[in-house]
Structures are given as C-alpha cells and as structure tokens.
Amino acid sequence: MGFLIAGGIIIIIGGFWIMNYNGLIKLRGWKEESWSQIDVQLKRRYDLIPNLVNTAKTYMKHERSTLAEIVEKRNQITSPDLTREEQVQADNQLSGALRQFFSLTEAYPDLKANESFSKLHEDLVATENKVAYSKQLYNKTVMQYNNKVESFPSNLIASVHNFRKHGYLEATNEERQSVKVDFD
Which compartments does it reside in (predicted)? Predict the structure, then answer.
C-alpha cells in the first residue's frame, strides 16, 4: 500500500514538473517567435529605405547629409555580425534619422506630391507601425516568460534547466525627444 502511495506522489510530482517545464519551453518559443516578427518587419523597412532615398534625392538637393545618414544607418543594421542588442541600438538610431527625414520632407511640396514617394512613405509608415506592434508583442511575451521564470514553483524548474530572464526593448533617450527641424 505504501508503495502505491509513493508511486502516486512521484507520478504527481513528475507530471507537475513536466507541465511547468513545457510551459517554460512554450513561452521561450513565443519569445523567439515574437523577436522573429520584429526581424521580419525590420527587413521590410530596410528594403524600402533605398527606394525612398533614391526618390527623395532628386528633390532634396540640400539634404544630402540626412539622406547619407539614413543609408549609413541602414547599412550598419544589415551587418550579420550584430548581436540583438546592437541591432536594436542601430535600429533606434535609424528610426531617429527617419523621423528627421520625414520632418524635412514637409518643406518639399513637389516631393510630397510625387506618387512614388507617397506610396513608399505610406509603406514605410505602415511598416513602422508593424515594428512598434511587434516590439510591444515581444515585450509582452518577455514579461510572461520572465514571470514564469521568477514565479514559484516554476522558478525551481527554471533554475534547474537554466532558463534565465530576458530584457525588454526600451525606448532610447533620442526616441523620447521630439524631432527638431530648422529650415534656416
């Protein structure tokens, strides 16, 4: 009789362990998938940028430095040697350059009226919205994952199987500031 009780306890503990372990695996997979969604949207944005810059070059003769900065930042981000953190940092710098660029386009009515530029601008704005949503999803998934890693009793299983907390994507100081445009 004692053997059956001990066996039952072992089965319950084993089942509990497996359920929590599988929950951690599922959340880690969701976290990786949400990062992948960010990566897909960033790739789409990087593909749009050269077309947008080339269209704008014909109109924005005085803004060559801004256009060159956008191309430079885009090329930095596409480097395969970047870690996730470096990629996020470079992406934040590119976002700032793009905000500056879109502010400058307000001074060029012919450019704003150009159909190709308008379509590219719309596509880029839609992609920026998708990037923002993907970053929100990533942070939400990381929060769920981190909660599971830190909560009792799953934290015991997480520590045994080497599950670690992950950091959130945060806005930089540059992103928190409004874009300053001076046409003088």
Answer: Membrane
